[in-house]
Amino acid sequence: MTTETICMRGITKVFATDEMETHALRGIDLDIFAGDFVSICGPSGCGKSTLLSLLGLLDMPSAGSYQIEGHEVSGLSLSEAAYIRNEKIGFIFQSFNLIDELTVFDNIALPLRYRRHALPKAELQERVMACLKTVDMTHRASHRPNQLSGGQQQRIAIARALVGSPALLLVDEPTGNLDSKNGDAVMDMLCELNNNGTTLCMVTHDPRYADMAKQKLHLLDGRILDAESTPDTQSEIRLQQVAVQ
């Protein structure tokens, strides 16, 4: 039986001011299973970024249930959410978000240094170098991000996201700051990671890259309109979603 990584039920998000309420998400039901590659697409303002923020525990829903590997996380405190986020979720951002003052090695090691339980130095080194090998960047370990090309920086960002062995990898417009050649190379790498078992959820405006996912999720006005499977999706890898009418 395929293991369920993400389970959302009745998720809503309302942003309120004195003058008005904005309903960013309206009753999202979403299951993501281990080994899935899900793309989220839709027009600006449809709720993509809000959904990604909730999935990544960067924000909390106004209502509904959110479970990661069977554990309810929708009501966590900020500090509790930070620990779970560090241990269960990897992030790849459009802008790379690397720290120029740190070497490539130290950028990748950073998530591990913030864990509740410190890793032995040898294990930390082994994990970082293994992730550098995965993205074919071991020869850049002592460089700094500003010495790398955009495509190389995104590879380092992928390695940093992988170093904690996350249950879910969240990918936000990973090719937005890259030319088409480097963008294609990054997407090929993400597809290879997924083929090797990494669970991915990606927001993208590019329909070519959205089509590379095994499941395509379409959002409009905070609701899931439909989910579309690509022909090669295996029957045991599923994404179930119901939009609340």
Would you write up a description of this structure?
By secondary structure, the chain is an alpha/beta fold. It has a single domain (4-243), classed as 3-Layer(aba) Sandwich (Rossmann fold), CATH 3.40.50.300. Helices cover 31% and strands 28% of the residues. The chain has seven helices and eleven strands. The chain has helices at residues 48-55, 78-88, 104-113, 121-134, 150-162, 180-195, 207-210; strands at residues 4-16, 21-33, 37-41, 63-68, 71-72, 89-92, 168-172, 200-203, 215-220, 223-229, 241-243. The strands form two sheets. A six-stranded mixed beta sheet has the order 6-7-8-3-9-10. Strands 5-4-1-2-11 form a five-stranded antiparallel beta sheet.
Question: Strand share of the residues?
Answer: 25-35%
Q: Terminal Cα separation, in Å?
A: 30 Å
Largest sheet: 6 strands, mixed
The count of strands amounts to 11
As a percent range, the share of helical residues equals 25-40%
CATH topology: Rossmann fold
Summarize the structure.
This protein has 7 helices and 11 strands. It is of the alpha/beta class and 245 residues long.
